[in-house]
Amino acid sequence: VNPGSVPDARPLRRPSDLLDLKLIFVTGKGGVGKTTVAASLALLAAQRGRRVLACEVDAKGDLASLFEAAPTDFAGREVAPGVVVMSMDTEASLREYLKLNLKIPLAGRIGPLARAFDFVATAAPGVREILTTGKFCWEVRERHYDLVVVDAAATGHIIAQLAAPQAINDLVKVGLIRTQTDWLLDILSDHRTTGLLAVTTPEEMPVSETLELAERVATETTVQLSAVVVNRVLPELFGRREEEVFEELRRPDIAAELSRRAGGDVGPVLDGARLAVTLRRTRAGHLERLREGLDPEVPLLLLPYLFTRTHGLRTTRQVAASLGEELGY
Amino acid sequence: MAASSLDGLLAAKEIVVACGPGGVGKTTTAAAAAVMAACRQGGRVLVLTVDPARRLADALGLAGIGNDERRIEDAVFKSAGVTPRGELWAAMLDTKESWDALVRRHAPDAETRDKILANPLYRDISGRFVQSHDYIAMERLYEIHNEGLYDLIVVDTPPTRNALDFLDAPQRMADFFSSRLLRWLIVPYRSRLVNFASRPFYQVADRILGTQFLADISEFFILFQSMYDGFVERAEAVTRLLSERRTTFMVVSTLETTPVREAEFFARELLVRGLHLGAIVLNKVLPAYMGDARATRVAETLAERAPALADGLGPDPVLTPRVLEEVAESFLNFGVVARREAEQRAELSSAPEVLAIVPFFASDIYDMAGLLELGAQIWE
User: Fold this and answer.
1) What is each CA distance from B12 to B1, B8, B37, B81, in whole angstroms?
2) What is the pLDDT of residues B357-372, one digit of tens each?
3) B209: pLDDT strictly greater than 50
4) Which chain B residues contact residue A244 at CB under 8 A?
């Protein structure tokens, strides 16, 4: 992005253009797999030759654990070939910012200053957000990485985060921060540079929240909703003809004969399949609602439900592979 | 004496705080518990909720209500075929409105009140400041409880980054207003005399934030400080209320890896703080038969020998073996998840007085009938 250039506001041409972005915020309601998708996206991009910085905003250490690595700090660490993971720390971000911009001698003063700043940041909305967003935009501008993936705030808070530069622009009329928000806005508004990836599951609340999010992103921010990832999509068990056969097998006489031949009660196995079919069907309805409610230009990327034992690098790899397929690789 | 059911637990308490990770059905579970208490135990029950799914709010006739409590019409219960013994009331937390009410209550005079309400920072903070949700939820709870209008209050807590944030919110808010740093920030705009030690701070703060912004901030805090005593007093009272025996906590989770880890952490932390962990409710649990060893063996047999086993059975000689294989595969897949869940459940079960397991419902809960169905699962 060149200062003063007009941000490109056209949507992505193909889903695979997603990996050509420089900055991707991954958001989603709690519990939908936001962090897993962020980790997998970072891994996929690295597998395709990008140098990737993946950053978690709530320092829980989950992002590094998805690469089987110990929690990272603000400085970051390479956890997989081509993937550096860091944890956001607004105080460290401020320190870095001051070092780079103010050229003030910091030793001895930064301690109380940072504490005071933390205090101001808690009190004055937007300051914390801008230090967070500012760090990512700075990494993008300096081209230290090809792609910055942010495991961002949950759906409820992401708008405040993305709209912070504008909010600060409205509140702060002068000062260094003010001069910084302009180039941040340029980076965030350029749809070839920055994108938002919303993660959801095909369930009632997550789908409703995603639709609300899409609307708010469009009206309250200049950021592009690049794609929606639908996580944990259950496999289709049967076609219609097969389902008729299945219902036939559930007839008491046939089920009894099957049980005799299999050497044990097939009832639970058939009940389990019935439940799987019902779950799948309910979820298909929510998926449909999502498709209808979203701008048709926003691609839906479907990730299968993983019947795995736990989470970790194995899961991250599987999700990355599915994501790659969905993006057309 | 330990209660052995949610029925017993709720009968003995005045406040139930539903908490836990996001996306696990916390709001729905809180509503179901309140519905059950109103139906079975009677009295006046209030559910103080944060952000219910629109369909649920619509179904309960709550769409569009705000901060004020409203009674759920008996017709809503009748539509689900029940007549409640007591009354169910509901309120939805409106952060902005609650903050305004708080300012009106604590402001020393009308002028200060109006200045605060008009301050741009205040408007921003009360509307968007994330932690202000946590604080105001607890504040509202305290206020409603003090009015003494309800026998039981079930509180749904806001989704937070950290499920514990709301517990600390009152104290944090009190600390915030009594902090030395706040005084630092306010002083220079009251007098031109700047302490030598703090001068570098102002110089840097000025350069970063701009003088006007700093002046706005300090005006806001000078105004707010006039309400300081009221705030600290309330914060202490809220903290006390949460730790009294009449308050209990209900941790809601699923058995998926991440939520269950957060729920465990939360349960431990409640105990450390001496708060009462009354119940753990586990939602969306796969039925036990899915992890059953004998059924798993049958599924394995079906998967391996589907063509032979299906011979002559069912309407279609080609499709039947394929369907059998699919059915068996699906069972084995879900079995992996079910067994993991069973293990996680065993690890959790020692802590609370009540452990309630809610099976995966075929559809989402969005009406009174659904709440009653869920309620019946957790009640006894």
Assistant:
1) 11, 6, 11, 27
2) 888 876 777 789 989 9
3) yes
4) 315
B/e letters for A230-251, b = 16+ CB within 10 Å, e = fewer, are bbbbbeebbeeebebbbebbbe
The CA distance from B64 to B72, in Å, is 13
Helical (H) or strand (E) element with A215: helix A204-220
Of B24, B316, B333, the CB nearest to A31: B24
**Which pLDDT belongs to residue B359?**
84
Residues from chain B that touch A235, judged by Cβ atoms under 8 A, are 330
CB contact under 8 A, A171 and B130: no
pTM, entire model: 0.81
Packing angle, helices B180-190 and B211-225, rounded to 10: 110
Q: CB within 8 A of B338, min separation 6: which ones? A: B286, B287, B288, B290, B291
Q: What are the structure tokens assigned to B164, written together?
A: 């514990």
Q: What is the 3-state secondary structure (H, E, C) of B61-91?
A: CCCCCCCCCEECCHHHHHHCCCCCCCEEEEE
Are B294 and A265 an interchain contact pair (Cβ–Cβ within 8 Å)?
yes
The minimal CB distance from B210 to the residues A174, A268, A270 is found for A174
Task: Please report the ipTM that was assigned to this predicted complex.
Answer: 0.82
Highest mean pLDDT pick, A3-17, A148-162, A219-233: A219-233
Question: How many of the other CB atoms lie within 10 Å of CB of B173?
Answer: 22
Q: Which of A124, A238, A245 sits opposite B121 (nearest CB)?
A: A124
CB under 8 Å to B15, separation ≥6 — which residues? Answer: B141, B145, B152, B153, B155, B241, B246, B247, B248
> How far is the alpha carbon of A228 from chain B, nearest alpha carbon, in Å?
18
The pLDDT-based confidence of A1 (bands split at 50, 70, 90) is very low
Q: Is the Cβ–Cβ distance between A269 and B332 less than 8 Å?
A: no
Q: How confident is the model at residue B159 (pLDDT cuts 50, 70, 90)?
A: low
Range in A28-42, A164-178, B250-264 with the lowest mean pLDDT: A164-178
Identify residue B32 by its one-letter amino acid code. A
Determine, for residues B360 and A175 on separate chains, whether the beta-carbon distance falls below 8 Å: no
Q: Which run of H or of E encompasses A210?
A: helix A204-220
Cβ–Cβ of A160/B208 closer than 8 Å? no
Angle at B110 between CA B106 and CA B112, to 5 degrees: 70
Contact B208 A175 (CB under 8 A): yes
Nearest to A176 by CA among B124, B202, B121, B204: B204
Among the partner residues B21, B295, B364, nearest to A269 by beta-carbon distance = B295
Q: CA torsion angle for B30, B31, B32, B38 (degrees, to 10)?
A: 110
Alpha-carbon span B59 to A244, nearest angstrom = 34
Residue A69's Cβ-count burial label (10 Å; 0-12, 13-18, 19+) is middle
A116, A156, A237 member nearest B330 (Cβ): A237
Give the pLDDT of residue B122: 79
A208 contacts on B by Cβ (under 8 Å)? 53-54
Closest to A40 measured CA to CA, from A21, A19, A20, A22: A19
Would you tell me how many other CB atoms lie within 10 Å of the CB of residue A328?
11
* Average confidence (pLDDT) over A94-123: 60
Helices A267-293/A240-249 angle, 10° precision: 150
Task: Looking at the complex, report in whole angstroms how far the Cα of residue B179 sits from the nearest Cα belonging to chain A.
Answer: 9
